[in-house]
Design goal:
The structure holds two protein chains of two kinds. Chain A is globular and about 55 Å long. By secondary structure, chain A is α+β, with helices and mostly antiparallel strands. In chain A, the strands form two sheets. In chain A, strands 3-1-2-4-8-7-6-5 form an eight-stranded mixed β-sheet, with helices on one face. In chain A, strands 9-10-14-13-12 form a five-stranded mixed beta barrel, surrounded by four helices. In chain A, 26% of the residues lie in helices and 36% in strands. Chain B is α+β, with helices and mostly antiparallel strands. Classes of the chains: A alpha+beta, B alpha+beta.
Chain lengths: 290, 87
């Protein structure tokens, strides 16, 4: 029996199909509050999923949860890691959905496939999946970007301990541009693996983007768009083997750094970093562009 | 005479006075300064070294012979980085 689920992450709709045991995984994943209900719009991503406990994939050279990838055509890539492999087609026409088939050995493989598909589909609809933690305050959502070890989880724990904010995301955040007069840039907590207390599915307006570095003292400096762009691109979760994906990512990233204040944030492991991040008017008082 | 052209398998955009180019094959981001950005833009539809050098002379304080040398070196570097293709 094949199970079909239409789900939503942020503003993109997903069409997922799974047969046999994969259908059970889909049922389990979609029953939680993590996914928003779909509106039956044209999906941005279509995935066929097959769970095969005996499947043994090729080990990837990237650290988990990354996939290795190889372009197999102008708009097609093969991806693999130890417990999953798949093929994705990324049409040049942005209105066409990304389509993929995946085989995996465990439910973790299903989540990895979904995360990868979302990372490829989002830029085509004006969004990005970022390596970022976040806190929410009265002024909106504050993003903290960095690669592994930069302190994303640490700062998302420190700021609520030192100021009036709530921990919002630990590792991954969806950002997307909404047309005026709605919120221009909003963040969404995606329904991927993480602390179960995180508000999966919540969304909020982005106040600013902070690029993290741990240091002996707290210091925040405003970045120009051209200084922010390379830092942002390092934190975009995507496989850019396909030119159409690279174009879309670059386009969205450029808009983000031009329309949302970006800062370099140095911090040490003390809760009073909240004073730097949450101080009223901080966006106006930071140093001019470097 | 070689014709240099932006590699169609790359994504590039100007931001202020620099150009960012992503080369998907090796997943690298290249940041081009103002003069390199001028050469990159000249090659949008293909150009010779002489054509790109003329553009540098027009927009920057550089003489023709220096511009030709700089453009030659830059174009070779761009080809090695797969930012340009050469016909």
């Amino acid at each position: 029996m094949t199970v079909t689920r239409r789900l939503r992450i942020g503003s993109i709709e997903l069409l997922l199909r799974g047969s046999g045991a994969a259908g059970a995984v889909l049922n389990e994943r979609s029953q939680g509050r993590a996914f928003e209900p779909a509106d039956n719009e044209d999906p941005a991503l279509e995935l066929d999923l097959e769970l095969d406990p005996s499947f043994e994939g090729r080990p990837a050279s990237r650290p988990s949860p990354g996939f290795d990838s190889r372009a197999t055509g102008e708009n097609e890539i093969d991806v693999w890691r130890a417990n999953a492999e798949g093929r994705l087609r990324i049409p040049a026409e942005l209105h066409q959905p990304v389509r993929g088939t995946f085989r995996f050995a465990s439910p973790m493989g299903a989540e990895a496939a979904l995360r990868l598909g979302v990372a490829l589909a989002l830029p085509r609809r004006g969004g990005l999946l970022l390596h970022s933690s976040a806190v929410a305050s009265e002024s909106g959502v504050h993003l903290f970007l960095g690669r592994s070890g930069a302190g994303k989880s640490t700062i998302a724990r420190l700021i609520p301990a030192g100021g009036n904010a709530t921990r919002w995301a630990d590792e991954l955040v969806v950002v997307e541009r909404r047309p005026a007069p709605q919120t221009r840039w909003r963040a969404v907590v995606p329904p991927f693996r993480g602390d179960q207390e995180l508000p999966f599915g919540d969304s909020g307006q982005i106040t600013e983007v902070n690029f993290l570095a741990q240091a002996p003292r707290h210091q925040r400096q405003r970045l120009s768009p051209k200084a922010a762009l390379p830092r942002l691109l390092q934190c975009v979760l995507v496989y850019a083997d396909v030119p159409a994906v690279a174009f879309a990512v670059l386009e969205v990233a450029m808009k983000l750094v031009q329309e949302v204040p970006c800062c370099a944030l140095e911090f040490r492991d003390t809760p009073n970093v909240a004073d730097v991040v949450l101080a009223p008017g901080v966006n106006e008082s930071v140093a001019p562009w470097d | 005479m070689p014709i240099y052209q932006q590699n169609p398998r790359t994504a590039g955009r100007r931001l202020e006075d620099v150009v960012f180019v992503v080369t998907p094959d090796d997943q690298r981001l290249h940041t081009l300064n103002a003069t390199a950005a001028e050469i990159w833009e000249c090659a949008a539809n293909g150009c010779t070294v002489e054509q790109a050098a003329a553009s540098l002379v027009e927009h920057f304080k550089v003489d023709q012979s220096t511009a030709v040398k700089d453009v030659e070196a830059c174009c070779k570097d761009f080809v090695s980085r797969r930012i340009f293709v050469c016909e």
